[in-house]
Write a structure and sequence with these properties.
By secondary structure, the chain is mainly beta. The protein has a single domain (2-127), classed as Lipocalin, CATH 2.40.128. The chain has one helix and ten strands. Strands 1, 2, 3, 4, 5, 6, 7, 8, 9 and 10 form a ten-stranded antiparallel β-sheet that branches. A hairpin with a 2-residue loop joins β7 (94-102) and β8 (105-110). The two termini are 14 Å apart.
Amino acid sequence: MSYARIDSESGDSAEVLGKTPEGRLTYTGEGYMHVLMMPDGRAEFPSGDVFGTDEELLAAAGHFVAYCGRFEVKDDTILHHADLSFFPNWVGKAMVRKAKLEGNRLTLTSEKQVRGGRESTAVIVWDRDG
């Protein structure tokens, strides 16, 4: 997978989860989906505590994406209706993704979002396993 953010003003691209992010995107026949994304090689918590210290939790959360819920397909668009999300602002919202399927590769492009105080678009490329 890959995850790039394209700055709306400058057009610059940034790999916010690094060059080799890890992730899972699943769509079920019953109409549910889930997504998990994170940078490759995340550091373990030095404390060894499953709840971590404040510093460990902040570092771990910095670039972790997770949400799930129902989905629907409309032409070249997929709507993800988040029931649960690490980012609480997405709960109860529909996230619109333009979709392009080429062979085993699915490219999802988000609507514009604010990230780090700047407006950008996410472009996430998923390769089907198996």
